[in-house]
Amino acid sequence: RRTGETVAGKYHVGALLGVGGMAAVYSARHSVLQREIALKILHKRYATDRELGARIVREARETAAMGHPAFVDVHDAGVTEDGCAYIEMESLDGRDLHSIRKSDGALDPQRVVTIAVAVLDALEAMHARGVVHRDIKSSNIYISPGADGRDKVKLLDLGFAKVEDELKLTAKNQLLGTPFYISPEQYVDPTSVDARSDLFSLGVVMFEVLTAKWPYSYVSKKELLSKVVKGDLERHPARQKPELPAWLDLIVARALAHSRDQRYASASEMKDALERAAFPDAPKPGLFRRLFGRTKPPPNA
C-alpha cells in the first residue's frame, strides 16, 4: 500500500479506496493546488511493463477528451518515482451501483431507468469516438447524490477494460475470472466486439439491479462460461419480479439477445426506447436535436 507516501513529488497519498487487478485507487491531496483528488496508480508488479504504463496514460488522455459529465474528470497523468503509471482524477462522493444493490436489494424500476439512460448517454458519446468500453458492470457505475437530490451517474474505468482483458488472457486465449457481464462475442473473440457488446453488459447490470439476482444460474465456472458462449441465460427480469413493467422487461430482454444483430443497434436507440416508455409525456428534442445537436432551431434557421 502507498498510504502515507508522497508520489510524483506532489501527491500526499491517503486512504485506499479500491483495488483492481491492474491498479489501486487512493484518496490523495495535491500539495501544490491544495485540493483533494483521487489517484489511480498501477500496481508495482507492472512497473516494468512500459507498454502497459503507456497505454494507461493514453487512455487517461482519451477519458479527459470526452468532455461529458458522466465521465470522471481527469486532471493529470504521469509516472511515479518507482515507474508506476498514475492518473489524477476528481474525487467522488458516493457508492458504486454494485455496493448499492448489495446493501439495498433490488432497486426501484424508475431509478434503474434513470441510471441506465445516463449510462447510455455516456456510451453514446464514447461510441461516437470509436471507443468501446468493454467493462460495463455495476461496480463501474458510480452514483453520487446530486444537488437536486437526483442520482449523479459516473461511468468509471474508460479504456482500461481492453488492457485488463489482455492481462486475463492465458496462452489458450481463455478469459479468466467470473465474466457475469460480458457478451458471448467478447468471450469468444475479444477483438471482435463493437458497441452492441456494451449494451449487452448494461442489460446484465439492469437485470441485476432490478431483481437482485443474476441472469445466469450455474454450479461451476465451467458451466457459467459455457452458458455465456451459448447465450443460455434468463433474459426476462419479470420472470423473477412479475411486478416489473412489461415494457422494461422487453427492453432488457432485447439488450440481452444472444445475437448482437438482435440487440439495439446503438446506445442512442436503446436510450430512446427507455425514454419513450418511461417518460411518455416528456417533450422530445425531435428534429432539431438530430440535425443540430440542440433542442431549439439554430440562429437564422
Largest sheet: 6 strands, antiparallel
Whole-angstrom Rg: 20 Å
β-strand percent reads 15-25%
Helix coverage percent of residues?
25-40%
How does the overall form come out from the CA principal axes? Answer: globular
Specify the CATH homologous superfamily of the largest domain. Answer: Transferase(Phosphotransferase) domain 1
Mean pLDDT: 85
Secondary-structure-derived class: alpha+beta
Number of helices: 10
Task: Name the helix and strand elements from N-terminus to C-terminus, one letter apiece.
Answer: EEEEHEEEHHEEHHHHHHH
CATH architecture of the largest domain: Orthogonal Bundle
Oligomer: single chain
Domain module count: 2
Question: What is the name of the CATH topology of the largest domain?
Answer: Transferase(Phosphotransferase), domain 1
| CATH domain class of the largest domain | Mainly Alpha
Number of strands: 9
Q: Which strand order spans the largest sheet, edge to edge or round the barrel?
A: 1-2-3-4-6-5
Unreliable sequence segments: 160-178, 286-301
N-end to C-end Cα span:
59 Å
